[in-house]
């Protein structure tokens, strides 16, 4: 027998489920998991989701609907401030990239064949692409 759920409990349960989930939750996901044991129409659940979206207007987080379901996310206009919480880490470069860069810096101008001769292995296109994209080297011939 399906249990009854009042509006306040429904809002709390839906909000908590979306918050706790590691992926967006669709209406079907909600109905087949946390709301499975309750007497609830699809329309009533959609109204609850709309109510939650309204409740979060003007706050730092918002309830949005994506292609795969509903999720909480921070407001886009706050992103420049929130980015300070996660300082950008400098990328790590492989030993091969660093060796190649050192050879170019030390022996410039140098050809790809000369780099391969000194290193004893072929220089991959990815290494050269990385150095070119960073603006650390340029092709002159």
Task: List strands and helices in order, with pairings.
Layout: H1 7-20, H2 27-32, H3 42-55, E1 61-66, E2 69-74, H4 79-82, H5 95-107, H6 112-119, H7 125-133
Key structural traits:
mainly alpha; Arc Repressor Mutant, subunit A; 141 residues; 2 domains; single chain; 7 helices; elongated; two-stranded antiparallel sheet
- Gross morphology: elongated
Number of domains: 2
Distance between the termini: 79 Å
The tally of strands reads 2
Q: What class do helices, strands and sheet pairing give?
A: mainly alpha
Into which percentage range does the β-strand content fall? 5-15%
Percent of residues in helices: 40-55%
Residue windows where pLDDT falls under 50 for at least 5 positions: none
Number of helical regions? 7
Give the strand order of the largest sheet, numbering strands 1, 2, ... along the chain: 1-2
CATH classification, class level of the largest domain: Mainly Alpha
CATH topology label of the largest domain: Arc Repressor Mutant, subunit A
- Note the main sheet: 2 strands, antiparallel
What is the radius of gyration?
Answer: 27 Å
N-to-C SSE string, H for helix and E for strand: HHHEEHHHH
Chain-averaged pLDDT? 92
CATH architecture of the largest domain: Orthogonal Bundle
CATH superfamily of the largest domain: Winged helix-like DNA-binding domain superfamily/Winged helix DNA-binding domain
């Amino acid at each position: 027998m399906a249990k009854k759920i009042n509006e306040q409990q429904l809002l709390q349960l839906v909000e908590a489920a979306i918050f706790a989930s590691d992926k967006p939750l669709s209406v079907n996901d909600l109905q087949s998991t946390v709301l499975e044991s309750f007497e609830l129409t699809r329309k009533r659940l959609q109204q609850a989701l709309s109510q939650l979206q309204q409740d979060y207007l003007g706050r730092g987080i918002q309830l949005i609907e994506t292609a795969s379901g509903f999720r909480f996310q921070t407001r886009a206009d706050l992103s420049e401030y929130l980015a300070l919480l996660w300082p950008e880490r400098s990328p790590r470069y492989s030993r091969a990239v660093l060796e190649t860069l050192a050879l170019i810096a030390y022996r410039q101008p140098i050809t790809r064949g000369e780099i391969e001769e000194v290193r004893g292995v072929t220089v991959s296109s990815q290494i050269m692409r990385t150095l070119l994209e960073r603006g650390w080297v340029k092709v002159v011939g």
